[in-house]
């Protein structure tokens, strides 16, 4: 069953170097795990609720195992410090569509 990785992030000011270091590793790792971006969006306005993220990304993977393998890899674990420096707020959500009704 395909799954979606939903990335909701707000970057810290002056974090370009940390973001670049993180993206240089995380992007290729996700692609090697079969992830493809199905959408990349920037924040326009908050219409209700608290302030939303500046960036939204949606990636599709073949299955949950592919995502977990990429996130659990030593390469990804090594760039978590740069990720944490780059983002003021970050939520990474693994989601799947509900099965079709029979």
Features:
alpha+beta; 4 strands; 31% strand; flat; 4-stranded antiparallel sheet; 102 residues
How would you explain this protein's 3D organization?
This protein is α+β, with helices and mostly antiparallel strands and 102 residues long. It has a domain at 1-50. The protein has 4 helices and 4 strands; from the N terminus they run βαββαααβ. It has helices at 16-32, 64-72, 74-78, 80-86, and strands spanning 3-11, 36-42, 55-61, 87-95. It has a 4-stranded antiparallel beta sheet with strand order 2-3-1-4. It is flat and about 40 Å long.
- What oligomeric state best describes the polypeptide chains here? single chain
Low-pLDDT runs: none
What overall form do the CA principal axes indicate? flat
Biggest β-sheet strands, sense, barrel = 4 strands, antiparallel
The run of helices and strands is EHEEHHHE
The termini sit apart by 16 Å
What is the strand content?
25-35%
* DSSP summary: helix tally: 4
Summing up helix and strand content along with how strands pair, one would put the structural category as alpha+beta
Architecture blueprint of SSEs:
Layout: E1 3-11, H1 16-32, E2 36-42, E3 55-61, H2 64-72, H3 74-78, H4 80-86, E4 87-95
Antiparallel strand pairs: 1-3, 1-4, 2-3
